[in-house]
Design brief:
about 200 residues, mainly alpha, three-stranded mixed beta sheet
């Protein structure tokens, strides 16, 4: 998903926080309950690269810090769910968010938040067989989604989680437009996987 630029004015943290609160409130109640149950309802908006933020939060919690490689890998990320700390981080100062119109920022950050919550549910609820099946599932994805995930360079054990996360975010966008049911562009097996993992009923 590539955000559209309209201005050159940076958006304050408060705008990103408000969007995330609204994104949370828009989730179906069963999904919020699941996220609460796995401890993924907490979030924190930061204004530094995600790798640095994750490293600092882990060290503050008494956990090992990130390796230099891990920090570099996360350097361009918009957000991440830290499983050990049960929290979603969103980088409000990411260069790609600077200069967006209010409308574009809201749409992009909401998509990002839904993606990270979908990712958290996937990590916690996918089976080992689901994870092992990542490469095959990727081939069942719509071409645009498939190529976006490939271009990001995820390892084989991350593919299923990225598929679930991005499809979940796209389904939430459809829900906001009052579009329900299985999208015509989505493979039935992937839709069933997302339903099982996230409790999606839309």
């Amino acid at each position: 998903m590539s955000p559209d630029r309209a201005t050159t004015t940076p958006h304050p943290v408060v705008a990103v926080e408000a969007t995330i609160r609204n994104a949370w409130a828009s989730l179906p109640a069963p999904d919020r309950q699941l996220l609460d149950a796995i401890g993924a309802s907490q979030y924190c908006v930061v204004i530094e690269p995600i790798g640095d933020a994750v490293d600092g939060m882990r060290r503050s919690a008494g956990l090992s810090g990130l390796s230099s490689h891990a920090k570099r890998r996360l350097a361009r990320a918009y957000g991440v769910w830290i499983k050990e700390l049960k929290i979603v981080l969103i980088n409000a100062a990411h260069p790609e968010l600077i200069g967006l119109s209010d409308e574009a920022l809201e749409a992009f950050v909401a998509h990002l938040a839904w993606h990270e919550w979908g990712h958290a549910l996937s990590v916690e609820r996918c089976t080992s067989d689901d994870v092992f099946d990542g490469r095959r599932l990727l081939e069942l994805c719509p071409e645009g989604l498939r190529e976006d995930i490939r271009a990001a360079g995820y390892g084989p054990r991350s593919l299923t989680h990225e598929i679930v996360a991005e499809v979940y975010a796209l389904l939430m966008e459809r829900r906001q437009r009052a579009e329900r049911g299985q999208p015509p562009w989505l493979n039935s097996e992937i839709y069933a996987l997302v339903q099982r993992v996230t409790a999606w009923t839309g």
